[in-house]
Structures are given as structure tokens and as C-alpha cells.
Give the backbone structure.
Amino acid sequence: MLLTISTTHYPASDLSYLLHKHPAKVQQAEVTGGVAHIFYTTVSDERCTAALLLDIDPVALVRGNGNERGNEFTLDQYVNDRPYAASSLLSGAIAKVYSSALNGRCKDKPALVNVAMPFEVKIPALPVRGGEAVLKGLFEPLGYEVSCTRHLIDEQHPEWGDSRYFDLHLRHTVTLQALLSHLYILIPVCDNEKHYWVGKHEMEKLLEKGQGWLEQHPAREMIIVRYLKYQRSLANQALESLLKEEDNPDEATAQVESTEEADAIPPAVAAEKVRVHDQRLLTVKQVLLDTGAGSIADLGCGEGKLLKLLLEERQFTRILGMDVSYYVLSIAQDKLKLDRMPERQRERIQLIHGSLTYKDDRLKGYDAAALVEVIEHLDVPRLSALERTIFGHARPGVIVVTTPNAEYNVKFEKMQAGAMRHSDHRFEWTRQEFRNWGDRLTATYGYNVTYFPLGEEDPLVGAISQMAVFKNA
């Protein structure tokens, strides 16, 4: 199997410093099941190409694995694609021979570590479970230009159809450390197979190498599950760790302004230096309590933080949590300890999988619904589908919606102008834009609406977040 990395950064020979491999030498290193050869095919100031050629001995690979493959067909252990197809073996070789670059170290030119360079990557014979859609779904969200050619099963027999093997060509301007981190994780994810036992140490490596990009990747769940070989407990732990890191550090603390005015945040939730997300949830819970609602639907419930707060209140006799992600729902189930919950308590709550952009009769009949920091994750054209589903079809008596206030972003010193707080946000609205949206819904679906700030209000830009409470007229 072969991996080539090229750059036209000037001088392109800087690549040899980053890789810690002398361009005039052919080097070798023993790796699992074989030998890795490292050499350069082109070295100049204009272009430099480094090649990693992996020579795998299938017999040595099987003997080195012990009895990991269990009772599988014996011949399959010796006759397979592992010596030729890019797989976790290549990922392991990257970690060994390019370890300094993968970990962001460059002894001779340390400043190069943080320099984004134009790179081209070529990997022939990469097996991809799921085809081109999976391949592009993994790399394109990270900014790569993806070109791929799919191989036939047999060129002499085209009627047999396509194989699962692709020649992959990637282009991106990125740091070498980020590039290698992406390849290290995503190559075995494409293949959907690993040649070694996966345990907690692999989960830790996944979180380490995925830091800074995996938590924001739209396919993060598939990446985690495949990388960890479908071990549910490890995948749930990894997802939980990522979810804990998702909160914007600039939103870490905020002070809720206590006031006696009728349109202020309920005083029961006023507290000093409450984490912003916790503040939102406490506010939403108090609003729901004040409406007298007995049945609540938490739409986009995530890992169940609001559900946990709702379960503490006897007023809420029927609680629904709905999310588009199976894996996040499994985390919610674990965190809520549903399997150990007393029967009467367990009867109060139900978790369901579903999408807010499709009409769903299971959402009908609830006194109130909450969408806490949900709408900004939808493309604006898809908002109309959510509106029809919730306001037109389900029609709960009260609907509570919270979303970030875009005007407040100027107070985040590290945030660039025009940027959003999270890479998965499709939009962030000003207070007036939020009001325009809410007012349109009242005219269309027959609700009344009241708007509230969430957090301490700045006289110029308002609060960090905003809330609308819709009541069925």
C-alpha cells in the first residue's frame, strides 16, 4: 500500500523538516506485519513529494494477531486484501514513521508546525464501505477537494460491477499535523475494519488526534463508531466526551439579570455566574412550570440535560425527548439511568428518534414543547419544514424557542467578524431577525409570542442568547 504527500509551499523542501526524514535517503522502519519504506520522489524548492510504501507479510500479520479473528474461515486470514489495500495498517505506519509531525513537533524549524501549506495526497486502492458518498462525506467537511476513481471488480469482466476500492486524491491547504491527524483517523474509518484489538486506549487516541475537528464534524458519530469497531460502550464514552467539549469556552459563564419587570427572565433562575447553557435550561424549565403544562416535548433533546431537570418537577407527568441522533439518545438514556429508574418515574418519560423536519403524529397532544438552541443548526430553507411540523402539525399549547443573539458576538474577542459560535450553526440571528421570524409565525399559525433576553443584557448588543415563548391563541 502507498501514501504520497506533496506540497508546492515555497521552499517545498520544508516538507522534509516537518516529516523528520532526510530527502537524500531511503529509510525503513518495522511496523505491524511488515516494513515501511520512506523516500522522496521529488525534491525541489517548487515541489516536494514524500512517499510511504508499506510492504506487508500476510503470514506475519496473522501470526502477530494471535487468535483475534476467532473462528473465521482459516484461509481468509491468509488470502485477503490487507497487504495491498490502504487500511488501519497504513494508519499505524503513519503514527510510527511520522510520529513527530503527527504530534506537532519540528526540531529544526518549529515555526513550520503552524504553517498551513497546500498539500496533495494520493492513496491508491482505498477500500470504502459506503462508496463515494461516504468518502466525500468524511473529507469534504474538513475542507478537502476530493477526487476519486472507483475500480471495477475485474476489468476483464465489467459486468461484475464496481469494487469497494478507490484511488483517492485529496487537495487542501492545512497544517501537516492536521492533515496527518485526518488521515490517521479516517483511513480505517473508510475501510471500516481494524487489524488489532480496540480498547480504551484507542478511544483516547481517537479523542487526542480528533481534537479541534472531530467534535464539529457532521459525521462524527459514524467516525467514532467505525473507528472503535462498533463497541457501543466505548463509542458512547467518546461521544459524551465530545459533547462536553462542545460548549463555546467564551460562553463559559454569565450572570442572569434579576428584575421585577414582567418581561424579564423569571427570578427563580437568577443566579451569579451560571454557565450559559445551564442558564438556558433553568430558564426554559421555569417558563414551562409557569405555563402550568403537564406534558412536555423536548425537541432536539441531545444528551438529556433538560429532560433531567424536567423529571425533578412533579408537575410534568408526561415527558418526551426526541433527537435525530440514535447515539446521542443512547447517551441520554445512560445519563438519565432509565434502566435503573423506578417504574412510576420511568413511565413519565419516553425517548424517541425522529426528525423535526417531517410531520410526526407522536408529537401531537403535548401541552408544551421546547427547542433549546436547535433552530440555528438547520439550513434556513429547511426551517419552513420545521415550522410546519411543530407549529402547524403538532401544535402544542406553548412552544419555547431559544437561539444565540448574533449581535452579542462582538463581545467575544477571539471571534472574527462574521464568524459564528459553532461550525455547525447555519445562521445566527440578531434580535430583530429573531422577532421578524417569530412575528411571521404568529401570523401564519395563530400563536401569540413574547420575547425575552437570556443572560445579562448589554445596553448596545443585548444578551448572549434570546428566547421566544409562543402561546396558542
Summary: The chain has two domains: 2-196, 253-472. Confidence is low (pLDDT under 50) at residues 66-73, 246-274. Residues 176-191 form the longest helix (16 residues).
